Amino acid sequence: MKFKIKGLRWYIATLLLLVTTVNYIDRTSISVAAPSFKQQLNINDQQYSYIIIVFQLCYLIMQPISGRLLDFLNLRRGFSLAAAWWSVANILHAFAHSPLTFGIFRGLLGVGEAANFPGIAKTASEWFPPRERTIATGIANIGSGTGALIATPLAAWIILKWGWQQAFVVTGAIGFFWVALWALFYRSPEDHPMITPEELAHIQQGQNELNAEEISHEKGVWKVVLSQRNFWGIAIARFLSEPAWQFFSYWIPIYLVSQRGMNIKQIGYYAWIPFLAAGLGSFIGGILSPLYQKLGMSVLTARNASMTTSALLMPFALFIASAPSGEWAVFWLCFGAFGHNCISATLLTLPADLFPKRTVATANGISGGIGYLGGMLFTWTVGWLAMNVGYTPIFTAIAFLDIIGAAVLWAFLRVPKAQSNTQAI
After folding, report:
1. Rounded to an integer, what distance in angstroms lies between the CA atom of residue 232 and that of residue 366?
2. Following CA atoms 414, 419, 423, 424 in sequence, which dihedral angle do they give, to the nearest 10 degrees?
């Protein structure tokens, strides 16, 4: 008799948390290293924004492709290959010697990292019934804050001790440990030898509570996704939401150095704190929707209410520019990071709620690509504004874009037609 694990799905959620942590350690190390390599290689803010835009462009292009590949390939194999790819790409940053080479290696990182959230969405759709999906997604998305939290003091310590090149080597190598864990442990629920019959029944129960009916293999997946208004509601909301996180991920250390006069050691002391708040926001965002469901809301109404509640925290970003000190600026940044990751727990779950299983990663990938288009355009704007105007317009945009995104969800989202006779908004 094979060994069985009770609550196996939560171990799977922990693996998703770990991969997102690794993803964001690799993704955000550049923001800590930036003050060092920008000075050494004579790279200005506008050129730095172009390096980030190359990552975002490759990420944008690859999200729909990665989602489609994950819908087509085995999740175990596809996720392992993606994590190994981005780990190698991050290590290659150590050999960059100009804005061009930084951009090339940053692009390779974006190609691999694009698979992360489509993979999370697909895993959540397979391993969790709708009532638990935002919790699972919230747990996974804690890794975005945790990874950035770890990367900030870790990269700062490595830079002070060995130089900025080694920060990329060490953080990149961490990913291979996760690849080994995923390849050894992950299987689908139906094929996993360690799942109990009771848990398998629990996962399968209610799987169609909100999902549209499964489509035949003859139907084009992209056509099914793009033809639905639900997709466009999610995509527009992600387009409006992503700019805030792109700023938090890549510009906090630069802002604290250029506008608040902090040095690398102080960055190591303070710049991780907003990401701690982001991790807490992922957890709270994950439990908000189930809480609203307990109050009597339907699944979709609870998702919308959770998004709205979280978006109302974002106007605190208005206080960042006028904060009397760097420490107070970090305090107000925490509100923005917390609110954004509360929002992400909802947005990343919606494709699993509203699309057939065979299209979940594709729907997440395409909507994520559109979201990254918003982040990429915002990053270009940040680079220009930081050099020519200042940060106040940036924080003003961050304060209100997510509120508009919440309004879009209320306007666009509808229960899939196949279930409209049993579910009310």
Report:
1. 10
2. 30
Among the listed residues 357, 152, 337, the one whose alpha carbon sits nearest the alpha carbon of residue 262: 152
214, pLDDT greater than 70: no
pTM over 0.85: no
Nearest to 419 by CA among 289, 299, 290: 299
- The answer to whether 402 and 314 have CB atoms below 8 angstroms apart is yes
End-to-end CA distance of the chain: 46
Average pLDDT over residues 353-365: 79
Whether the CB-CB separation of 353 and 211 falls below 8 Å is answered with yes
Report the CATH fold assignment for 8-419: Growth Hormone; Chain: A; (1.20.1250)
pLDDT, one tens digit per residue, over 382-425 is: 878 877 888 899 999 999 999 999 999 999 998 876 544 434 33
pLDDT at 210: 52
Residues 9, 165: Cα–Cα separation, whole Å: 38
> Residue range 179-189: average pLDDT?
92
Query: Any idea where the domains of the chain sit in the sequence?
Result: 8-419
Calculate helix-pair angle for 116-127, 45-72, nearest 10 degrees: 40
